[in-house]
Amino acid sequence: MVGKNFDYISYSKEMKKQVSLRIPKDINVDDGIFICNVIENFVRIAGESISKTNLYTTEQQKYFCQIIAEWTFYKSIDILRTDIPKEYWENILQSIAYTVYEVIKQSYERNIDQEQILQAVKYYVNKNFKYSLSELYSKNIIDKIIYSKALSQSYIDNITSENNHNNCYSIENEQYKFLNDSVIVAFARNLTYKYLFKAAHCLKKVSMQTQDRQNILFLLRKGMETVINHIQTEIFSFSIPQVERIVTVSMELLFHRIVVMYKNNILSYNSWSEECVSFLGTIIYTLEFIYTKDNDELKDTYEYTNLFSNKQLKEYLNEYLKSETFTKTQINKAFEKSYIVFLEKELCELMKSKKIPSSIGYWLMLFFILNLTYYYFFIYK
User: CA-CA distance, 332 to 321, in Å (whole number)?
Assistant: First the structure.
């Protein structure tokens, strides 16, 4: 039953009070006040947002706020125990709070149990925290010593060890296997490295400059890190052939699109480019995971994955056209076919076909399916 009587304002004040009693002694008074105030603010904002959805029970709304408060508290201590400039504290914590919110929301949508939710929250919070630190380091806001020190901080691990999980919820359970088998992930990584070497060879054959090759390979690796992270954290038991298919398709489509975008000055060696290829990696993975899970043949779905991922990427790039980051010509050229042959042989073997299928009728059918699926997943739902 949907809870309509959750008093998130009172709960945010209660969280602030509880946090004030848990501030470690090495945190000075002013910084302790900062922690309490930011947690009260985040809990209030989250509570208000959740209540407006009319989707959750009172207990679920309370759970959202509790976990946001807990992780904001844990990571605020980690931040304060380093020399990260104070003006960046709240932005980092805000990003973490949003990550917690999204993970819990998506977990409830997929009917994931509480223990799995806590595992997922920890994984994505730590990933987000590392990304925030990397951003500061890449912009020379913090040096390598501060970066390394911040990464080594883990207040939650310390208190769960010291208190034997008595004073906070447990998000550790070594007996519970949330992440996919390390053998599967190792296979995905090894296959990715194999394809990266092949990509490097392909780029060298076409006489691309060394720095350009390195930049493209860096972005390709970043895009594949996103795909492998999805494989690792997906609540699904992959087989080796399924992972081989997802990695091969992702590498092929990412490689060609990165090469053409880089050639047209859309991608370069910067954080936005990493974000862009990660976005594309997620779209490709999402489509391939659906087909793999449903046992659809690759030869029947490959061109659809290509079409749909390009459609989503074009919409993504068009958002930046409004701010005059790119020109329309640049974006249109970004979807030309690359002249470099990459994984055609490997894809044909997976399809059990002599060539990758493509015909006018096939493309028309795909466009029809594309519009139906786009409507179902992004409008109807």
Answer: 11
- Placement of tokens 């899970």 in the chain: 293
d(CA 201, CA 198): 5
Angle between helices 155-162 and 58-80 (to 10 degrees): 110
Angle at 332 between CA 337 and CA 273, to 5 degrees: 85
For residues 46 and 86, the answer to whether their CB atoms sit within 8 Å is no
Tens digit of each residue's pLDDT (9 = 90 or more) over 127-148: 888 888 888 888 889 887 888 8
User: In angstroms, rounded to a whole number, what is the distance separating the alpha carbons of residues 304 and 3?
Assistant: 41
Whole-angstrom Cα distance, residue 114 to residue 54? 20
The single-letter code of the amino acid at 350 is L
Q: What is the tens place of the pLDDT at every residue in 302-321?
A: 988 999 899 889 888 887 77
Helix or strand holding residue 329 (H, E)? helix 328-333
Is residue 102 helix, strand or coil?
A: helix
